[in-house]
Write a structure and sequence with these properties.
The structure is a single chain. The protein is α+β, with helices and mostly antiparallel strands and about 775 residues long. It has 19 helices and 26 strands.
């Protein structure tokens, strides 16, 4: 989200000094605007993934779909991509056409209920030639009993015979180079280290080839007849000519060696399309995705709270569960995508968003709890020590208790900035699960000593960090990085989480018999709360009447107009000229009332659509055939985390920051505002029906409209400012940033739960009782 260090991770070989002469990386990832992501449903065994459960062997394969083609496909850990993409090139009587560049695409779910709501993340992808010469239908899903993927391809020739060829670009071991590949009419194979792949058909291929990637152009491999290649490679498999319509069944098997990968693909094909799909879906006595959806006790009433008949919330439930690792139970990632992947260097291993951020993680766990999933949030809570810094963290020589900024699902540190909200949220999650009755007292007490007390202690006293590059001394509530990971200072959103975390830590400490620390945690929360306005509300700002919350203040004076740090290609501006709606988290968690004067005074500035685009935060949208306008908000004014306004180039293309980069509208803020409006409507008791209807018609509906045809909600949607990128975005459509963003789906689910309950789902009663009394 965000993410400053994406560029720092690019190889030095791709760094450039001039935007005009930026060289393309040797290999890249795929387009990040996914319309489908999937994996099999695997049941826990005692809160872990083991082969002895009702779903049998644990499949560790995830796939994604974008622009009508299969894109990043992972095997092993959830971030370990083995495939960049697989397309079909079609020779027609009038020339060659390739999926993506020469086709339009439609994404549908294969398995739906009577109301059209998805019952599993199995997809039917239809690509149609722009010149009307052919249609290709692909049906894609994982084999829940093996490390393999099933792909059924149906080719329809519309204007004479066509000859299709599979074009597979392996990225074994999560890199675009270092692969060894071979091709025969029996199979296409590739490997690097202990990651092996085998693509097989139910019938032999007509021809096959393996070649080195030439000048970044995989289609050059269509002219090659060699049977082996090394480095960055392309594998092709010719399918028989199609006069009218033909169907081809394919499987991609993975394994630690060639024999296992080949056996996986062969077994999937032998089991056959109908049975593998039925097992994936959980049809009849089989255990699969239908069973997971049935287990979600709150899903029926959340469907009722939706505006689309429950389609998006059912898809959201699938998306949140899909994006969990199947080795480390409860490890919830941010997104199965590499943002702006089609211009991001793939010669070096990169997780993209396929990693754990405790903040995104918290949102997902809370949304799953809101759905009535009792198991995954508990597994998530039990997982959290894996990413908490302490004596066992490799390389740590400093203070512990805080949680890693970003980590691989196995706990390997990736980024090591300190973000205090990410230290508070695990405490908040534990309290919530305890109060729901899902986390037993004995377990809570055990985790108090093991994890929650060290976290709360860090929120009180901070300390000197000693991990990787980071040797800063943290003095809460001043955070080294706020929730967008780009600035240090006093942040309203971060402080809201810190105060809430400390108050509920007081409850937990008291339950654990630690009265002295319970008092300390609550007193510290009181002290932080007492200085919120003095530190973060300006009365001499440049906008409106000058009275509003700052996005961030780097010192104790919110009126001195000190500059924020330059980030994402944007120049530094005075702190009073950078607005965001993070102060609404103070209301969400119960630190301030919805009618608090500083909160109310800040809203008109956030909502001012007459403001210059550089500083403007709110943008309203209209959608064809849908009456009304629907609100959206950027992360903050002067945000540079997005496409270039002049050229439409991707964020950080060529490894360089540019002053024209612009962050766009994020759907999560529509959900956050909906939560605020619900809190406001409920100040005097249960919100009335009219108020709830307005929230549903405005904020719930807006989030549904921001979703794409695969029912995936993006990180960012196009706001219409500047060039619309080579992808030709329309307003309100997701950009190439990252789709699906798990947090976007989580916010939508939580908004439905809040609307259904008539109160904010992730508000904290003891916080509200302490600070937000009438």
């Amino acid at each position: 989200m965000r993410r400053l260090k994406l560029i720092a991770l690019a190889s030095a070989a791709t760094a450039v000094t001039s935007a005009a002469h930026a060289a393309a990386p040797a290999t890249t990832w795929a387009y990040a605007a996914k319309t489908g992501v999937g994996a099999s449903y695997e049941a826990y065994v005692d809160g872990a993934y083991k082969p002895s459960g009702p779903t049998g062997a644990v499949s560790k394969v995830w796939f994604s779909i974008a622009d009508g083609v299969l894109t990043e496909t992972m095997y092993g850990l959830i971030h370990e991509a083995q495939v960049k993409q697989m397309r079909i090139a079609v020779q027609t009587s009038t020339g060659l056409a390739v999926e993506g560049a020469d086709t339009t695409a439609k994404t549908e779910y294969l398995h739906v209920d009577a109301a059209g709501r998805p019952l599993s993340p199995a997809y039917k992808i239809t690509t149609t030639d722009r010149q009307g010469r052919f249609v290709i239908e692909k049906r894609i899903f994982a084999d829940p009993d093996r490390d393999s993927l099933f792909v059924r391809v149906t080719v329809r020739a519309l204007k004479g015979a066509v000859t299709p060829t599979l074009v597979l670009e392996p990225h074994m071991a999560n890199t675009g180079g270092g692969d060894t590949g071979a091709a025969s009419t029996t199979a296409l194979t590739a490997f690097e280290g202990r990651a092996h792949l085998s693509l097989k058909g139910a019938k032999p291929f007509a021809k096959a080839s393996a070649s080195a990637l030439q000048d970044g152009e995989p289609l050059a491999g269509l002219k090659v007849t060699t049977s082996s290649a090394k480095g960055a490679i392309v594998l092709t498999a010719g399918l028989p000519a199609v006069a009218k319509e033909e169907t081809f069944d394919l499987a991609i098997g993975f394994g630690p060696d060639a024999k296992v990968a080949d056996a996986s693909a062969s077994a999937t094909l032998k089991t056959g399309y109908a049975e593998v799909l039925a097992r994936f879906n959980g049809e009849g006595a089989r255990v699969g995705w239908e069973d997971y959806l049935t287990s979600l006790t709150e899903l029926p009433r959340l469907r009722e709270a939706s505006e689309d008949g429950g389609k998006l919330v059912q898809a959201s439930a699938l998306m949140l569960k899909v994006q969990e690792d199947r080795t480390h139970a409860g490890a919830l990632i941010a997104s199965l995508s590499n943002p702006w992947g089609d211009t991001v260097d793939a010669t070096q291993s990169s997780t993209g968003y396929k990693a754990v951020w405790p903040r995104d993680f918290y949102q997902c766990a809370m949304a799953l709890a809101a759905l009535g999933d009792r198991e995954t949030p508990l597994a998530a809570f039990h997982y959290l020590p894996t990413v908490q810094v302490g004596p066992k963290t490799p390389g740590n020589t400093g203070a512990g208790g805080w949680f890693l900024q970003k980590a691989h699902v196995d706990g390997t540190p990736e980024w090591v900035g300190v973000q205090l909200d990410q230290t508070a949220m695990p405490i908040m999650l534990g309290w919530k699960l305890w109060k729901l009755g899902w986390l037993p007292d004995a377990e809570l007490k055990a985790y108090y000593g093991r994890m929650l007390k060290p976290a709360a202690d860090f929120l009180v006293k901070g300390g000197k960090v000693g991990l990787g590059w980071n040797s800063a001394t943290i003095t809460p509530p001043f955070t080294q990085q706020e929730r967008w990971e780009e600035q240090g200072g006093y942040s309203p959103s971060t402080t809201a989480a810190v105060i809430a975390g400390l108050v509920v830590a007081g409850d937990i400490a008291e339950a654990a018999g630690d009265g002295a620390l319970a008092a300390l945690y609550r007193q510290t929360a009181d002290a932080y709360s007492a200085k919120v306005e003095a530190r973060m509300v300006t009365t001499k700002g440049s906008f409106g009447d000058g009275h509003y919350y700052l996005r961030l203040n780097s010192d104790q004076d919110p009126n001195n107009k000190s500059p924020v740090e330059a980030r994402n290609g944007q120049a530094a501006v005075p702190e009073d000229k950078m607005l965001d709606a993070g102060f609404l988290e103070l209301v969400r968690y119960g630190v301030r009332r919805a009618d608090d004067p500083a909160i109310v005074a800040s809203l008109p500035k956030i909502d001012d659509q007459a403001m210059e685009d550089l500083y403007r935060v709110r943008y309203d949208f209209t959608f064809p055939g849908v009456p009304g306008t629907f609100p959206g908000w950027r992360r903050y004014g002067v945000d540079g985390y997005g496409e270039d306004v002049a050229t439409g180039a991707n964020y950080g293309a060529g490894g360089q920051m540019r002053p024209g980069q612009r962050g766009r509208v994020w759907p999560i803020f529509t959900g956050e505002r909906g939560h605020y409006e619900l809190a406001l409507a409920g100040l005097s008791g249960k919100p009335d029906a009219a108020a709830v209807k307005t929230i549903r018609d405005t904020y719930v509906r807006a989030m549904e409209l921001f979703a794409n045809d695969g029912l995936l909600i993006p990180e960012q949607v196009w706001d219409g400012v500047g060039a619309a990128s080579p992808h030709g975005y329309t307003r309100g459509e997701g950009t190439d940033s990252a789709t699906p963003l798990a947090w976007s789906h989580a916010e939508y689910v939580k908004l439905l739960r809040s609307v259904s309950d008539g109160q904010v789902w992730d508000s904290y009663a003891p916080v509200k009782a302490r600070f937000a009394r009438p």
